[in-house]
């Protein structure tokens, strides 16, 4: 499933708030993907968002994710590009869109690393499901926008 505007934007707002709560400064969001115009339209008013200029440079984008990203948001969770970028970024906190992955046919542990954090968007509330034990979650609700 492709990234959806509402869940993508709210996921960025969620991570922005988490970093602000930790007094993180000079945060820059790097948007990587194959639809630059979609991303430009979505983030046109956000001054802390940089959109990758050329979607055909996957190797460079993967290297940027692996070396420089502290947080990664997988908005299209079935994306192999996103998976490998997040996997290679060993020190990053990784959030994935649990709504864009078909959990009816696969268990999340088959695809996502145990320390990756699933996010669910419902209305204007984003749920950060933090794993207690395999397959069991508790939910933290965070109001966005």
From TrEMBL:
- Record's superkingdom? Eukaryota
Concerning Pfam families, the annotation shows:
Glyco_transf_11
- From the UniProt record, which GO molecular function terms apply? galactoside 2-alpha-L-fucosyltransferase activity
Give the GO terms filed under biological process for this record. carbohydrate metabolic process
Parts of the chain that traverse the membrane? none
Record keywords, A-Z: Glycosyltransferase, Transferase
Asked if the keyword Protein biosynthesis belongs to this entry, the reply reads no
Gene Ontology CC, one term: membrane
Listed PANTHER family: ALPHA-1,2-FUCOSYLTRANSFERASE-RELATED, UNCHARACTERIZED GLYCOSOL TRANSFERASE-RELATED
* Name the UniProt record assigns to this protein: L-Fucosyltransferase
Q: Which organism is it from?
A: Plectus sambesii
């Amino acid at each position: 499933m492709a990234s959806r505007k509402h869940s993508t934007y709210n996921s960025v707002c969620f991570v922005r708030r988490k970093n602000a709560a930790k007094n993180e400064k000079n945060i820059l969001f790097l948007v990587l993907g194959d639809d630059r115009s979609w991303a430009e339209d979505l983030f046109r008013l956000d001054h802390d968002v940089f959109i990758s200029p050329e979607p055909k440079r996957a190797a460079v984008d993967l290297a940027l994710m692996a070396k420089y990203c502290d947080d990664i948001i997988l908005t299209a969770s079935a994306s192999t590009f996103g998976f490998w970028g997040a996997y290679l970024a060993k020190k990053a906190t990784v959030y994935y869109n649990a709504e864009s992955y078909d959990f009816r046919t696969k268990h999340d542990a088959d695809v996502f690393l145990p320390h990756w954090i699933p996010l669910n968007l419902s209305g204007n509330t984003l749920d950060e499901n933090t794993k207690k034990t395999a397959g069991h979650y508790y939910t933290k609700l965070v109001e966005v926008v």
